[in-house]
Specification:
The chain has 373 residues and is an alpha+beta fold. The protein has three domains: 111 residues, Beta-Lactamase, CATH 3.30.450; 71 residues; 160 residues, Heat Shock Protein 90, CATH 3.30.565.10. Helix content is 42%, strand content 25%. The chain has eleven helices and 13 strands. Strands 7, 9, 10, 11, 12 and 13 form a six-stranded mixed β-sheet that branches. A five-stranded antiparallel β-sheet has the order 2-1-5-4-3. Strands 6-8 form a two-stranded antiparallel ribbon. Helix 8 crosses helix 9 and helix 9 runs antiparallel to helix 11. The longest helix has 48 residues. The two termini are 52 Å apart. The relative contact order is 0.11.
Length: 373
């Protein structure tokens, strides 16, 4: 029996590859000699393009991380910096906790191990957990109210129908018809507030076929001044989902973008695969990210946090049901829709886990990779 309990080099590599925060290693000349997959995602550059580069070619000259690297190499002491503002390639900025650990006690003759733990991710996770909790509370409340509203509505409608049969004058029956019509309208509104009530029939799907189907549907009904662009990642595996529900969710989000841009504008459909990604408090090995981006005027800041609740809309004639229904449909797929908006750039991202059956783990304080936007 093999009693050797020492981890193998392969095991070390697998541990580093599956860490959700970025790990980098620099030699004594401050040249990058190792970066794990989370680090590649953070910098949005492959390891083959980064390895061998000096730190000054990877980080801006005024970067506090670059200064910490030089100080750690000179002094030979571990350094931890909290809430450091980092500028990464592609004009991407983030806030992170950084730890620089010399690999030898001899100054100027050691490599450095660097760990980066983005705090932006933790804040996003906290927001998403709060959003999911609020939506669950709201749905519970609506279900209770729906029961209390629909029962009296049914009674009113039945009484109006009975009254209609007894009325002799046709002119009076117009009033009962109004009562019946309004009762039906309120019942339909309550049904829409409750969201989808059918169980998802999931199958293996090509997400790009879903997106192309939606694009063709919408392009046939929008003004000629609206231009569609696609930016698909062909390497994304098939998703497991209900085709009709996914089409409806994407369609609602795309139509929302069409309404935002008006008669002229640009809408981009983009897909990316995201690794070791957290949705709410649940970490997934692989997630499909579908982004719908428009260059409209943007969503007012005070509405962004509540945009997925029914009856919340940035338009005077809007009901706010479209995005609420889309969120419910994606929730049925264990996913989430997020929103970021500023004038000229609004981005809704539909996040769908790609693994099935227990491949995700509970985690609330991990970092994540970054995909170029």
């Amino acid at each position: 029996m093999n009693t050797d309990s020492k981890p193998t080099a392969g095991l070390h590599q697998r541990i580093l590859d599956n860490l959700s925060h970025a790990v980098l290693m620099f030699d004594a000349a401050l040249r990058l000699v190792f970066i794990n997959p989370a680090g590649e995602m953070l910098f949005a550059v492959s390891a083959s393009r980064l390895l061998g580069l000096p730190a000054k070619d990877i980080l801006p000259a005024d970067s506090p991380l670059l200064a910490a690297l030089r100080r750690g190499l000179r002094d030979g002491h571990p350094i931890t910096e909290h809430e450091v503002q980092l500028s990464l390639p592609g004009q991407h900025k983030l806030t992170a906790d950084c730890t620089v650990t010399p690999l030898s006690t001899r100054p100027d003759d050691s490599g450095l191990l660097v760990e980066l733990r983005p705090l932006d991710h933790q804040r996003r996770v906290a927001r998403e957990e709060q959003q999911i909790a609020r939506q669950q509370t709201f749905r519970t409340l609506v279900r209770g109210l729906a029961h209390e509203i629909k029962n009296p509505l049914g009674g009113l409608r039945g009484a109006a129908q009975l009254l209609e049969r007894e009325l002799p004058a046709a002119g009076l029956k117009e009033y009962t018809a109004i009562i019946i019509g309004e009762a039906d309208r309120l019942r339909n509104l309550v049904d829409h507030l409750l969201g989808p009530n059918t169980i998802a029939r999931k199958e293996s799907l090509n997400i790009h076929r879903v997106l192309e189907h939606v694009r063709q549907l919408v392009q046939a009904e929008v003004p000629h001044g609206i231009r569609f662009h696609t930016d698909y990642d062909p390497s994304i595996p098939h998703v497991t989902g209900d085709r009709d529900q996914l089409i409806q969710a994407v369609l609602n989000v795309v139509r929302n973008a069409v309404q935002a841009v008006g008669n002229e504008g640009e809408i981009t459909l983009r897909t990316r695969a995201r690794r070791q990604f957290t949705i709410g408090s649940r970490q997934h090995r692989l997630v499909c990210q579908v982004c719908v981006i428009d260059n409209g005027p943007g969503i007012p800041e005070e509405l962004v946090e509540n945009i997925f609740f029914p009856m919340v809309s940035g338009r005077a004639d809007g009901t706010g049901l479209g995005l609420s229904i889309a969120q419910s449909l994606i929730n049925q797929h264990d996913g989430l829709i997020t929103c970021k908006s500023r004038p000229g750039h609004t981005q809704f991202c539909l996040l769908l886990p790609l693994e099935t059956g227990g491949a995700s783990t509970e985690k609330t304080t991990t970092s994540e990779e970054r995909i170029p936007t």
